[in-house]
Design goal:
41% helix; 31% strand; two-stranded antiparallel ribbon; three-stranded antiparallel sheet; single chain; 1 helix; 5 strands; alpha+beta
């Protein structure tokens, strides 16, 4: 088990309802907003917001104290959440794309079948008129 919370531990009970997310940094605080696609009439929140302060790390340059720099790093909890969120959102995009391709193929098959049926019916009518 990870030392950092998963989405479930952050209070997200049904990751399948996640529609999208955004991450913004303001004053060294990461603001993660997760937007859900809820069923009509749901009383649950449409989005959740989380705030994570960045950690400050001191970096010495060439052993000289005057070259010291401070870097603000993204917290591991945010990185882990982003990995989970990317997997969820990407999976949904792939699923939506596959569904779209299948629907297009079904429509193409219906069109081809209708054209072929019309052609066969015209042949039948032509044979009827020549008998």
């Amino acid at each position: 088990m990870s030392d950092y919370p998963t989405l479930n531990e952050m209070g997200i009970q049904d990751p399948e309802e996640i529609d999208r997310y955004s991450l913004q940094t303001v004053n060294n605080i990461d603001h993660l907003r997760i937007v859900f696609k809820r069923k009509k009439g749901s009383l649950l929140a449409a989005s959740k917001r989380f705030r994570f302060p960045r950690t400050e790390k001191m970096i010495l340059g060439d052993g000289n104290a005057r070259d010291t720099q401070y870097v603000h790093e993204v917290p591991p909890v945010v990185r882990n959440a982003m990995v989970e969120l990317d997997q969820i959102v990407q999976s949904k995009r792939i699923h939506a794309h596959q569904l779209e391709v299948i629907q297009e193929e079904v429509q193409r098959l219906e069109d081809e079948t209708a054209t072929r049926m019309a052609y066969l019916k015209s042949l039948i009518e032509e044979l009827k008129t020549h008998t």
